[in-house]
Amino acid sequence: GLPLPTLGAALAVALEVLGGLALIAGYQTRWAALAMALFTVVAGVFFHNFWAAPAEAMQMQQIMFMKNLAIAGGLLALTAFGPGALSLDAKRGA
Fold first, then answer.
1. SS3 content of the chain, % helix, strand, coil (to 5)
2. CB-CB contact of 79 with 30 (8 Å)
3. pLDDT for position 92
4. Would you say residue 80 has pLDDT above 80?
5. Are 37 and 72 contacting, i.e. CB atoms less than 8 angstroms apart?
6. Average of pLDDT values for 36-61?
7. Where would you tag: which of 2, 28, 67, 69 has the fewest CB atoms within 10 A of its CB?
8. pLDDT at 94 over 70
9. In sequence order, which residues have a C-beta less than 8 Å from that of residue 12 and are 6 or more positions away?
10. CA angle, corner 86, sides to 82 and 89, nearest 5?
11. Contact 25, 33 (CB under 8 A)
12. CB 34 within 8 A of CB 77
C-alpha cells in the first residue's frame, strides 16, 4: 500500500481539485464548501502554527495562518448561503 504521507497528499490534492471544481460548477456547493473550509482550518493549524515557529518565521507563518482563516470564512459563507442562480444546484432545484 501507499505510505501514509503519500496517501495524505493524494487525498488533499483530490479534495482541493474536486472541491474546487464542485464550487466552480455549483454542484453540491454547501457540502463542498464545508469540506474545504474544514480542510483549510486543519491545514492552517498543522502547517502554519506560528505559535511554535522560530522568531524569524513567526510573522510569515501568522500571515499564512490568518490567510487560511479568511479563506475558511469565505467557504463557510458559501456553506451558509449556498450557490447562486447559475449553479448546477439551482438548476437541479437543490
1. 80, 0, 20
2. yes
3. 86
4. yes
5. yes
6. 96
7. 2
8. no
9. 39, 43
10. 50
11. no
12. no
Distances, alpha carbon 49 to alpha carbons 13, 18, 40, 62, in Å: 21, 26, 13, 7
Alpha-carbon gap, residue 6 to 60, rounded angstroms:
26
For residue 42, give the C-alpha cell.
486543519
- The C-alpha cell at 26 is 455549483
Beta-carbon contacts of residue 2 (< 8 Å; ≥ 6 apart): 10
77, three cell numbers = 459563507
* Side chain identity, residue 56: E
What does the pLDDT look like over 5-20, one tens digit per residue? 899 899 999 999 999 9
0.70 surpassed by pTM: yes
Place of cell 501514509: 4
